[in-house]
Design brief:
The complex is a heterodimer.
Chain A (H helix, E strand, L loop, with lengths): L28 H15 L6 E5 L7 H4 L3 E4 L5 H11 L4 E7 H7 L1 H10 L3 E7 L34 H8 L3 E6 L3 H13 L3 E7 L12 H4 L1 E2 L8 H10 L4 E7 L26
Parallel strand pairs in A: 1-2, 1-3, 3-4, 4-6, 5-6, 7-8
Antiparallel strand pairs in A: 5-8
Helix pairs in contact in A: 1-7, 4-5, 5-6, 6-9
Chain B lengths: L1 E3 L1 E9 L4 H15 L2 E8 L7 E9 L10 E6 L14 E9 L8 H5 L3 E4 L2 H6 L6 H13 L3 H11 L5 H17 L7 E3 L9 E5 H12 L3 E4 L6 H13 L3 E4 L3 H13 L4 E5 L1 H17 L3 E7 L16 H6 L8 E3 L6 H16 L2 E7 H5 L1 E5 L44 E3 L13 H16 L8 E4 L4 E4 L5 H13 L5 E5 L1 E3 L3 H7 L5 E6 L5 H9 L5 E6 L8 H9 L4
Helix pairs in contact in B: 1-4, 1-5, 4-6, 5-6, 7-8, 7-12, 9-10, 15-18
Classes of the chains: A alpha/beta, B alpha/beta.
Chain lengths: 278, 573
């Protein structure tokens, strides 16, 4: 017998708030917002059962632009906040939005431990290789020779490799997207949200103001040539050696998500004090 | 032999010698026999090879502070005991039991003129298979205090059962040997018989009591990053939250811990973390977020010597400034301080209730002294403070999460509630929750967050107010019991003084404070902080009479009731 889907059909517009999105004209993040709402509509989730959590930076403005519950917290700590929310409310869909400064620099430690903890949530990092909101300082993914006021002549430092770090730290789903392909990105987000455990989606999202050179990205990106693997060794080799513009799902793991049992009381409150009775 | 209503015993040894184990057994046996008591520990930061002392005070009445000096000091060894210095004071009437092979008496002890009796505890222990000198020490203490051998034997049977019959036998033999060795000794003191033991006696630490108070107040989620001396709160919560359908997450650092509890609380689950000074410093930014986004959370700070790593294992009251003033921006929040081991339960429960009622962060300032002390007390009375958050349910139209209602508290929509979607934000926001940098919105939201705390009826729990007389001793937190005892002693000496100890430190309560001080002419402020932080806090928020004296000292040397008593007596008009 065929099952009938009784959920109301949802449109991307159902997930947009009344707040007008403000990014620089041409910013990749507009497309990411579009991908979010498309993905939510595709999943058919009631907006009140989704929470979008963010930190600080251009990317982190996204919760208020959705019609979901949102949390726009402090710089770098969105993953920790989301962890506390998800383990206590496992029935909610939790999506965390971040950027390369928020997620990889100030929030770097939480990134490692969120991957390791493998709580069922989706982590989206809009990576533009620059601090945009503070006007153009180098981030952990900025190229070594990129000249800025804070790093005259470039940092000289090797960029951070977030996908490899996610894999080594235990993320259960790893993908790379390009903001200029919102439909493809939406499809990946749908799969990331459906996949159990911690899903990490890096979205290359050009900064038109401080990185006009990133307009070239649309010519560099290309679909990953092979299907996603569930073998972390294979995935590590591919991610380490690709050109950084391989787009698609790169790794699907099968680790069991971390979710303690909550909501089931096994003793009366008055029992607890027996510990102290002598 | 003199009968006394309070006797104090210190058992000292190098780390690993078992001094704390012996002290714990002594307290528990005395509690079972009907006495009340307090065990505090003073240790170095090392796990093994440092110094450790169990300081036990037993009495026929509730014990909420240390004695001025110890009646009985037992040195299993004196290897590192000199590091305690004045923390373990003995006098000419004290009895010191020393092992001839335990090293030299510490200079402070030798100079005190106490009677010293040598008992070869180590050698006696060697004669017993698996024997340990700390059990000999326990036997000696028990005999001198008049504790029955049967009470101790039953206790050992019970507590060491899982270590097997050999361990039980070794301990019992050791205790008997100690009993026999102390048989001919004249202690000079006898602890008066206990009053009828109440039906429900507790043996509890302040940290465990605080954890139970949190759960009773409604906490069902905790985030944990270990730090001395707060870790026991988190360790008690881990299994007990699970029993109550909640959970605990170990965080990667304190920054994560505070954000985890904000996330859980945003989701509707009352949440808590526990830390000490350095951890509280790391949490300050997110506490500002909890204030701005109006998310209730509870943070227990079990204060230790600071700043920086300071003295992690010893007590101080020097985090008052950061707790009250450490937030960036104008950020009204709650600060409370428990006043005894038992009060850790009430104050944490009340803090949870207030945080939930006011949708604001609450900091509970406990300290190492009451946090890690174990007290034998009558079961604290039940209180009705159970967290009740005002929630938005039937929502029609555009939900105004941050509308400034009359009392400042606006209904909070919990994720999953249809039509309640909003974004909790650390940015200044409109009543709808939308970011703004407008003059009017900023002012309205600052007013809202101030008004909700100022307009709340906190009731009589805001402070402990006792006694009469025109001299008021004002103190806070764990020193309350010490000051109470000093005032009682002064009363016996014909000098009246009253006690004022605010439990609610923020928001300040100027009207209530002024009423409590009506008619007072002289103020003695007592606090354990080098910078007299509490005195400055009082000056900032309250009017004091012109005659004010301050008795303050940093940790780790506790302020004794005798010192406060002297300060009161010296100020007779």
């Amino acid at each position: 017998m065929a099952t009938v889907d009784l959920r109301p059909a949802r449109k991307p517009a159902d997930y947009k708030s009344e707040v007008k999105a403000i990014w620089c004209p041409g910013c990749g993040d507009y497309h990411v917002l579009m991908s979010f709402t498309k993905a939510f509509a595709e999943l058919g989730l009631p907006p009140e059962e989704i929470v979008v959590v963010s930190g600080i930076g251009c990317s982190s403005r996204i919760p208020a632009y959705t019609n979901c519950y949102g949390f726009h917290g402090v710089h770098g700590r969105s993953l920790a906040l989301a962890a506390g929310l998800k383990v206590t409310r496992p029935e909610l869909t939790v999506v965390v939005a971040s950027g390369d400064g928020d997620g990889y620099s100030i929030g770097g430690n939480h990134f490692l431990h969120a991957c390791r903890r493998n709580i069922d949530m989706t982590y989206v990092v809009m990576d533009n290789h620059i601090y945009g909101m503070t006007k153009g300082q180098p981030s952990p993914t900025t190229e070594p020779e990129f000249d800025t006021a804070l790093s005259p002549g470039g940092t000289g430092l090797r960029p951070f490799h977030p996908l490899v770090i996610a894999l080594a730290s235990g993320a259960n789903f790893i993908a790379r997207c390009f903001s200029g392909e919102p439909n493809e990105t939406a499809s990946v987000l749908v799969e990331a949200i459906r996949h159990p455990g911690f899903s990490f989606v890096e979205i290359l999202s050009p900064c038109v103001t401080f990185r006009p050179d990133e307009k070239e990205w649309k010519n560099l990106v290309h679909p990953a040539p092979v299907a996603p693997t569930s073998d972390p060794g294979k995935a590590a080799r591919r991610i380490m050696t690709d050109d950084g513009f391989n787009i698609g799902i790169l790794y699907r793991g099968d680790r069991t998500p971390y979710q303690p049992a909550v909501g089931q009381t096994s003793v009366e409150l008055a029992e607890l004090e027996k510990d102290f009775e002598r | 032999m003199e009968e006394s209503h309070s006797v104090s015993i210190a058992i000292v040894g190098s780390g690993g010698a078992g001094a704390l184990t012996a002290g714990n057994f002594l307290l528990e046996a005395a509690s079972q026999a009907g006495w009340q008591g307090l065990l505090t520990r003073t240790v170095g930061p090392q796990i093994r090879g440092g110094e450790a002392a169990a300081l036990v005070r037993l009495a026929t009445h509730p014990v909420e502070c240390l004695p001025d000096r110890f009646d009985l000091l037992i040195g299993i060894d004196w290897l590192n005991a000199h590091r305690f210095g004045a923390e373990i004071e003995v006098g000419p009437h004290s009895l010191v039991i020393s092992d001839p092979r335990g090293g030299d008496l510490p200079p402070d002890v030798a100079a005190a003129g106490a009677r010293v009796v040598e008992i070869p505890m180590k050698e006696m222990a060697k004669a017993i298979p698996d024997g340990r000198a700390n059990m000999i020490a326990l036997g000696i203490a028990a005999r001198l205090l008049g504790l029955g051998a049967d009470v101790l034997a039953a206790l050992i049977e019970n507590r060491l059962a899982e270590k097997g019959p050999a361990a039980v036998a070794a301990s019992r033999t050791g205790i008997s040997a100690g009993f026999d060795a102390a048989a001919g000794l004249d202690f000079g003191l006898r602890l008066a018989a206990p009053k009828a033991k109440s039906a429900r006696r507790w043996l509890v630490s302040g940290n465990d009591a605080a954890a139970l108070g949190a759960i009773r107040g409604g906490v069902r989620f905790a985030a944990a990053y270990p730090i001395t001396p707060a870790t026991e709160i988190l360790e008690w919560l881990a299994p007990n939250l699970a029993k109550m359908g909640g959970t605990l997450l170990q965080a990667e650092d304190e920054l994560a811990a505070i954000n985890m509890i904000i996330g859980a609380s945003f989701g509707g689950t009352p949440a808590l973390t526990a830390t000490s000074g350095p951890g509280l410093s790391l949490m300050m930014e997110a506490l500002g977020l909890a204030t701005a986004a109006e998310i209730p959370v509870v943070v227990i700070d079990v204060m230790r010597g600071g700043p920086s790593t300071g003295i992690p294992t010893k007590s101080e009251q020097a985090d008052l400034n950061i707790a009250v003033y450490g937030f960036h921006g104008d950020a009204p929040h709650l600060v409370l301080a428990p006043q005894s081991v038992g009060d850790c339960l009430f104050t944490t429960q009340w803090a949870t209730y207030l945080a939930e009622a006011l949708q604001a962060p609450a900091i509970v300032l406990s300290d190492q002294f009451i946090g890690q002390a174990r007290a034998a007390i009558d079961r604290p009375a039940d209180v009705a403070f159970i967290g009740q958050r005002l929630k938005a349910t039937d929502i029609a139209g555009a939900y105004q999460r941050y509308a400034h209602a009359a009392n400042g508290v606006s209904p909070m929509a919990i994720p999953g509630t249809r039509g309640g979607q909003y974004t909790a934000d650390g940015l200044t926001h409109t009543p709808r929750g939308i970011p703004t940098s407008g003059v009017a919105d900023h002012g309205t939201q600052l007013d809202k967050r101030r008004d909700k705390l100022d307009r709340f009826a906190y009731g009589d729990h805001w402070a402990t107010i006792e006694g009469t007389g025109d001299l008021a001793v004002i103190t806070w937190g764990s020193l309350t019991g010490t000051v109470r005892e000093a005032i009682e002693r002064a009363g016996r000496d014909g000098m009246e003084a009253s006690l004022l100890a605010p439990r609610l430190l923020a928001p300040p309560q100027p009207e209530r404070f002024a009423a409590a001080l009506a008619g007072k002419k002289r103020i003695l402020v007592v606090e354990q902080s080098h910078g007299a932080q509490f005195h400055r806090y009082l000056r900032a928020h309250y009017d004091l009479p012109s005659a004010v004296r301050v008795l303050n000292r940093p940790g780790p040397l506790p302020i004794r009731a005798g010192e406060v008593h002297r300060a009161i007596m010296q100020w007779s008009t």
